[in-house]
Amino acid sequence: MNFILSPSILAADCAKLGEQIHAADVAGAEYIHIDVMDGTFVPSISYGMNVVSSLRKTTDKVFDVHLMITEPIRYIEEFAKAGSDIITFHLEAASDVNAVIDKIHSLGKKAGISIKPATPVSELLPYLDKVEMILVMTVEPGFGGQAFLPHCGEKVKELRGILNERGLSTDIEVDGGIYLSNLQEVLDYGANVIVSGSGIFKGDIEKNVTDYLKIMKK
Ligand code: DX5
Ligand code: ZN
User: Fold this and answer.
1) How far apart are CA 81 and CA 78, in angstroms?
2) Which domain holds residue 100?
């Protein structure tokens, strides 16, 4: 299994985004996690495709774009053109989930599907062999700095079990409340793509990335 770190720039200093992404990049983070919030699907508003296309000029790392927006199909093409590599949308936000997956694939991008803490793993079952990644939220989407919800760890374990039974090696990404202190526990549940915002961008970014990777790559 490939273990990948995806620092979430939601916790970065917006005035220094290029600089702080560079620090995560040189320290060895493989993905950059970009949270897009519309103020409707989640209460907060973050940034849109113009930020993605500006950042695209600063790094070659994989852009892991997490859309927390209602009816994401409306914006898939624009986020693909802006330079996203993986586009993840919420199951709860899409009226036609298959259409969104197909749209992402038709633009040559990898598709991810995400579930909120209250959404059961069973709702993902029709889509497991159709996406490259599943994002199990481990906090309520919308804000950084929240505490990891243990029942979401159990959902990861359940999902990894189902994927294994079906012979699928789909990536499971986890997002929210992940720090050095609980990273091993989260890996043990069966996640292999780790998002972390506060744990990476607060303090010494390069050291934080190095410390995470030491645990993830051992
Ligand atoms: C929350 C976002 C997360 C957020 C995680 O809705 O999807 O990516 O940045 O932040 P931390 O790691 O601080 O919990
Ligand atoms: Zn996210």
Assistant:
1) 5
2) 4-217
For residue 169, give the CATH number of its domain. 3.20.20.70
pLDDT 10s digits, 130-143: 999 999 999 999 99
- Taking the centre of ligand 2 as the mean of its atom positions, its distance from the CA of residue 213, in whole angstroms, is 19
Per-residue pLDDT for 128 more than 90?
A: yes
Alpha helices (runs of H) in the chain, residue ranges in sequence order: 17-26, 49-56, 76-82, 97-106, 150-165, 180-189, 198-201, 205-216
> Quick one: tokens of 23?
């620090």
Catalytic option among 35, 38, 64, 171: 35
CB atoms within 10 A of CB 16: 12
Judge whether residue 218 has pLDDT over 90. no
Q: CA–CA separation, 163 vs 191, rounded Å?
A: 12
The domain total for the chain is 1
